[in-house]
Amino acid sequence: MFVLGNYAGPLAMTFFISLFILVMQGLWRYVDDIVGKGLEVSVMAELLFYVALQVVPMALPLAILLASLMTFGNLGENYELTAMKASGISLFRIMKPLIIVTGVVSVMAFWFSNNILPVANLKFYTLLYSVRQQRPELELKERVYYDGIDGFRIKIGHKDRKTGMLYDLIIHDHRDRINRNINVTMADSGKMDIDNKAGMIRLVLYSGVTYDEKVTMGNKRMTDRDRQLYRHDAFSQEVFQIKVDGLDFSRTSEDVFKTNDRMKNLAQLNQDGDSIRFRCDSITNLLRTDVKGFTLKKANFRFKNDSLLALALDTACVINVDSVAKALTPRKVHTAMQNALRLAKGNKQLVDERVMNFENEKLKVNRHLMEMHRKFSLPVACLIFFFIGAPLGAIIRKGGLGTPIVISIIFFIFYYVIDTFGAKMAREDVWPVWCGMWLSTGVLAAIGSFLTYKSATDSALFRSEAYGRVADKIKDIIRKRRLAKLKKRRDEGDPMAF
Predict the structure, then answer these.
(1) Exposed (0-12), middle (13-18) or buried (19+): which is 200, by Cβ within 10 Å?
(2) Is 139 a residue whose pLDDT tops 50?
(3) DSSP SS3 for 237
(4) How many CB atoms lie within 10 A of CB 167?
(5) Quick one: CA dihedral 126, 128, 131, 133, positive or negative?
(6) What is the DSSP letter of 462?
(7) 212 in helix, strand or coil?
(8) Are the CB atoms for 167 and 157 separated by under 8 Å?
(9) Which of 141, 252, 387, 427 has its CA 20 to 30 A from that of 412?
(10) CA-angle at 274, arms to 269 and 279, nearest 5°
């Protein structure tokens, strides 16, 4: 219970610290999609909650690594670990309650990855897509044209922050795509109201003028332009109503993203993976059938009325193109070559389409397999990080947050880089999926086994005196070899050896 009590506190603390850092990093990736949309606090809180659930698979192994390092580092620094070993308690016995706790956490991590994470991914990406579709919040800057409203450009000279009045307005109506500058409104002042529910912008303008000219693309001569319709309307008050889509926040249906591999549990991944593999086999069979049909039998069909050519094609085991060409007139040879070229291009296009469809389906299969392996790699990573952090903390004997944080970051970056590389190799079908997805786990498992062995045998792995003794031994070996070579040269009578 003593070791367990020292482990529970750091584990909870480091988990929430890691979660907070990763959530902030995750939100930073989507800051351009969120800022300036005028979202409600409830929507932002919901988005933050789903991001937190998404980063749990990364925060949990990092927290276990850091907590185990801190726990055994503190025990070693305070000589409590030495006292327990001196009492005859082995390192594995000391680690036993923490191994059980980490095992329970790993089982919970698997349950979370299989049941909670797919739902969180579905709701997060659905909400994020809805936020991206939201029109940016309307904000007019002084002396800068605003083109966030489709078909209009608006410029204001000054804005009264207290009353909301706008002064020196210029509005360009570009709804006519051919003649974009035929309608311009200038006003001394005005006020803007936005109705989010109706999707309307209401502009009340005071003391202004509207210039409107109906110029068409056909009226290019000056005489025609002189006769064109032109209006000049002055007003003391005028109301503009502009229909704008996307002012109100609307949620996208979750059915749009349900087919993605990250939104499925193990049963769904297995079922959908079988369906995709069946489609891959169907495409392969179609491609095999198509290739078998790409023969000169079509040429035989085209020239079946020519008895000499038909006889040559039916009886020849190996067709001699020159002999077949001699049986045809030059015109038929030219026609046959054109038909063959057209047929070859059509066959190539058909094969390319089949191959492209197969590659797309194969990519889906790989993604489904990767997601299945990832659900198991998370709990295994939790165990491996514990078997790295606990023995490493017992070896370095440094507690607190300083040294453990540095070591944890180094190991976590190392794990993340290898995991990203392995996932890329698996996704692109360079390696088998299981090999790419378990590459980082295998590498860290070897490191964890080595560190556990060194810690159980009280190895001086991080003591400078041990490395100094090893350096002295290497220097002695080099010096002895040099002396042996010098003695050999003396025995051979080399004058330079004396």
Answers:
(1) middle
(2) yes
(3) strand
(4) 15
(5) negative
(6) T
(7) strand
(8) yes
(9) 427
(10) 125
The 3-state DSSP class for residue 204 equals strand
The tokens 């659930």 sit on which residue? 53
Return the minimum-mean-pLDDT range out of 168-182, 334-348, 408-422, 426-440: 168-182
Helices (H), 134-242: 222-226
Q: Which one is predicted more confidently, 198 or 107?
A: 107
Q: Which amino acid is at 434?
A: W
Q: What is the mean pLDDT of residues 274-292?
A: 85
Q: Which two tokens stand for residue 259?
A: 């087919």
CB 124 within 8 A of CB 54: yes
Task: Give DSSP secondary structure letters for 114-153.
Answer: IIIHHHHHHHHHHHHHHHHHSPPPP-PPBTS-B--STTEE
Enumerate residues 6+ apart whose C-beta is below 8 A from 242.
Answer: 149, 152, 200, 201, 203
- CA atoms of 198 and 260, how far apart (whole Å): 34
Per-residue pLDDT tens digits for 203-261: 889 999 988 876 554 545 545 555 556 677 889 988 888 777 655 667 788 888 888 88
- Tell me, rounded to whole angstroms, the distance of Cα 89 from its chain centroid: 47
Q: How many residues appear in the chain? A: 498
Closest of 374, 437, 415, 463 to residue 65, by C-alpha:
415
- Which stretch of DSSP H or E encloses residue 233? strand 230-243
Per-residue pLDDT reduced to its tens digit, 302-323: 444 555 445 444 544 445 666 6
Q: What is the distance of C-alpha 476 from the center of its chain?
A: 53
The structure tokens listed for 174 are 């570009």
- Summarised one tens digit per residue, pLDDT across range 411-461 is 888 998 999 999 999 988 889 999 999 999 999 999 989 888 888 877 655
Would strands 166-173 and 158-159 be described as parallel, antiparallel, or unpaired? antiparallel
- The predicted model gives 89-111 an average pLDDT of 89
- Tokens of residue 211, six digits: 């210039």
| Torsion angle, alpha carbons of 113, 114, 116, 121, to 10 | 80
Alpha helices in 397-463 (DSSP H): 402-427, 433-437, 439-456
Tell me the pLDDT tens digit for each residue of 31-66: 877 776 667 888 889 999 999 999 998 899 999 999
- Report how far residue 154's alpha carbon sits from residue 172's, in angstroms, rounded to the nearest whole number: 7
Residue 461 pLDDT: 59
CB count within 10 Å of CB 310 equals 16
State CA 379 to chain mean position distance: 22
- Backbone φ and ψ of 253, nearest 5°: -65, 140
Mean pLDDT of 477-493: 78
